[in-house]
From TrEMBL:
Signal peptide segment: none
Quaternary structure note: V-ATPase is a heteromultimeric enzyme made up of two complexes: the ATP-hydrolytic V1 complex and the proton translocation V0 complex. The V1 complex consists of three catalytic AB heterodimers that form a heterohexamer, three peripheral stalks each consisting of EG heterodimers, one central rotor including subunits D and F, and the regulatory subunits C and H. The proton translocation complex V0 consists of the proton transport subunit a, a ring of proteolipid subunits c9c'', rotary subunit d, subunits e and f, and two accessory subunits.
Family: Belongs to the V-ATPase C subunit family.
Record key words, sorted: Hydrogen ion transport, Ion transport, Transport
A GO cellular component entry from the record: lysosomal membrane
Superkingdom of origin organism: Eukaryota
Record-level Gene Ontology MF annotations: proton-transporting ATPase activity, rotational mechanism
Name this polypeptide is given: V-type proton ATPase subunit C
Function: Subunit of the V1 complex of vacuolar(H+)-ATPase (V-ATPase), a multisubunit enzyme composed of a peripheral complex (V1) that hydrolyzes ATP and a membrane integral complex (V0) that translocates protons. V-ATPase is responsible for acidifying and maintaining the pH of intracellular compartments and in some cell types, is targeted to the plasma membrane, where it is responsible for acidifying the extracellular environment. Subunit C is necessary for the assembly of the catalytic sector of the enzyme and is likely to have a specific function in its catalytic activity.
Gene3D superfamilies xref list: 3.30.70.100, subunit c (vma5p) of the yeast v-atpase, domain 2 (1.20.1460.10), Vacuolar atp synthase subunit c, domain 1 (3.30.70.1180)
Lineage: Eukaryota, Metazoa, Ecdysozoa, Arthropoda, Hexapoda
């Protein structure tokens, strides 16, 4: 499954005993799930008021960090294009696949020093992920503009003769060049009227050079012809040609401009290739950063909620559960059997600096759609599903 549950329960005589009791009932005896100890370091508790306010803010931060993590994953899938099947192997956290990272979670002391207050750690994460979001916007805009320019050029080199760029289809010998009186036009003729064109183009106006029209190319619906005539009758020719459903394309044969157009496409292709590698590397690195930040936010939420529910001194065991998809209801029932007595329990013990003793904390589980007697948060590591949308 791509879904994991992160729960906590009050410590028995030891936190190991809490884990063993839960693991024996759910995993070893009934095979309802796989369980892993989730290591949360000794964080600074602060006061009751600080914890209550922080609990709400961490819920919002959790949503924000997950949103940015998924956005990075989705854009990596977009950039990989025809290599999208390799997306899964590029979505790593700290050089591990996502299940391995969360089941062996270790707090990153260097990035998130535990001597800092909980609020400061949350602010560090918020700023870090906010910077990833800002950089993603800048990098994606630059790459998308480049890709868009290239796609527009390529569209002009495909599609109907009515709209596509004709530069790659014509040659110098198709034109009368550097003549004071004569010019060559390119005319798009519906295929069903091709015979009509060849029989009657010399009669559309006066001053058309006889036998000057040749078929240059054709697609499924149209033929491209050239025709040479005197410059003075060009506008009249265009008018009468349109009446017969022959369409004159505006085109001037200029070798320098044609070369510049080809060079522009070559340059765009080269620029896209140059940006592709560094952009993929940046996305991989910052997906890892964002995902790791997300799991640290989950750890912060479990810590704060556990202290609010179970009181001080801090004594709880955080457990990561990988549910067996077919046994979710039975697993819930087993957890309720173990921890149902916690429902409605107040925060016991003395909270540092708050003066609160056995205070009933209203609104525990801020921002949670699901409430259980034990602390519970869901982790969905299926980033690819969203990336393919």
């Amino acid at each position: 499954m791509s879904e994991y549950w992160l729960i906590s329960a009050p410590g028995d005589k030891t936190c190991q005993q809490t884990f063993d009791t839960m693991n024996n009932l759910t995993s070893k005896q009934n095979n309802l799930c796989n369980n892993f100890k989730f290591h949360i370091p000794d964080l600074k508790v602060g006061t009751l008021d600080q914890l209550v306010g922080l609990s709400d803010d961490l819920g919002k931060l959790d949503t924000y960090v997950e949103q940015i993590t998924r956005k990075v994953a989705a854009y990596l899938g977009e950039v990989l294009e025809d290599q999208r099947d390799k997306l899964h192997e590029n979505l790593l956290a700290n050089n591990s696949d996502l299940p391995n990272y969360i089941t062996r979670f270790q707090w990153d002391m260097a990035k998130y020093p535990i001597k800092q207050s909980l609020r400061n750690i949350a602010d560090i994460i918020s700023k870090q992920v906010g910077q990833i979001d800002a950089d993603l916007k800048t990098k994606s805009n630059a790459y998308n503009n480049l890709k868009g320019s290239l796609q527009n050029l390529e569209k002009k080199q495909t599609g109907s003769l009515l709209t596509r760029n004709l530069a790659d289809l014509v040659k110098k010998e198709h034109f009368i060049l550097d003549s004071e009186y004569l010019t060559t036009l390119l005319v798009i003729v519906p295929k069903m009227l091709a015979n009509d064109w060849m029989a009657n183009y010399e009669k559309i106006t006066d001053m058309i050079v006889p036998r000057s029209s040749t078929l240059i190319t054709q697609d499924n619906d149209y033929c491209l012809y050239n025709v040479t005539l005197f410059k003075k009758v060009v506008e009249e020719f265009k008018l009468h040609a349109r009446e017969k459903k022959f369409i004159v394309r505006d085109f001037v044969y200029n070798e320098e401009e044609l070369a510049a157009g080809k060079n522009e496409r070559t340059k765009l292709i080269t620029d896209k290739k140059k940006q592709f590698g560094p952009l993929v590397r940046w996305l991989k690195v910052n997906f890892s950063e964002a995902f790791c930040a997300l799991i640290h936010v989950k750890a912060l939420r479990v810590f704060v909620e556990s202290v609010l529910r179970y009181g001080l001194p801090v004594n709880f065991q955080a457990i990561l559960i990988e549910p067996n998809k077919k046994s979710i209801k039975r697993l819930r029932d087993s957890l309720n059997q173990l921890y149902g007595h916690l429902d409605g329990a107040s925060a016991g013990g003395q909270l540092s600096g708050s003066g609160a003793d056995n205070v009933d904390i209203p609104g525990l589980g801020f921002g949670q759609a699901e409430y259980y007697p034990y602390v519970f948060y869901k982790i969905n590591i299926d980033m690819i599903e969203v990336a393919k949308m």
